[in-house]
Amino acid sequence: MDWNFLFFLNSILFGVGLAMDAFSVSMANGLNEPKMGSARMCTIAGTFGAYQIIMPLVGWFCVHAIAEAFESFQKFIPWIALILLLYIGGKMLIEGIKNKDSAEEKPAVGFGALMVQGIATSIDALSVGFTIAEYTWLAALVEALIIGVVTFSICMGGLAIGKKFGTKLAGKASILGGIILIAIGFEIFFTA
After folding, report:
1. 107 phi and psi, to 5 degrees?
2. pLDDT, tens digit (0-9, with 9 covering 90-100), for 115-128
């Protein structure tokens, strides 16, 4: 492993590729909460970024510590992502249908749901840990940090886009957000 331009470029490209699910979920969160403040946006984007840092490192560790046991678990990753996103998306969809006439503003994503979203959108990042298995611990950490920063930036953009359109879609935002999350779950499942 060399510390060269290609290393940093690959890390950024990994970040962009891995952040697409989190970007879509961020847009859905912004749709659900169009009056979201900057601190909440940073919390949501930061959560997705943190999970995108942790998961490749967990994958790297698994290759070095428990490779055989983890290999049998890998086939369940798409199922886990699908179940988590179906649960959250379905819940948002049902709440949107129940409360479509409600004008009350409440945070659409609580702490628990945000943690589940973070896991569901970053579970594919475990595989990055497998691809960087030959890296030293420091190189794996640097790559994971770059992926996390890229994810944070992309998610902030997704939240801003979602907020912009969420204001225009007010009553339908939760329904649309739920549909988006369900679609992402199926996309992860069928492309894995």
Report:
1. -55, 125
2. 999 998 888 788 77
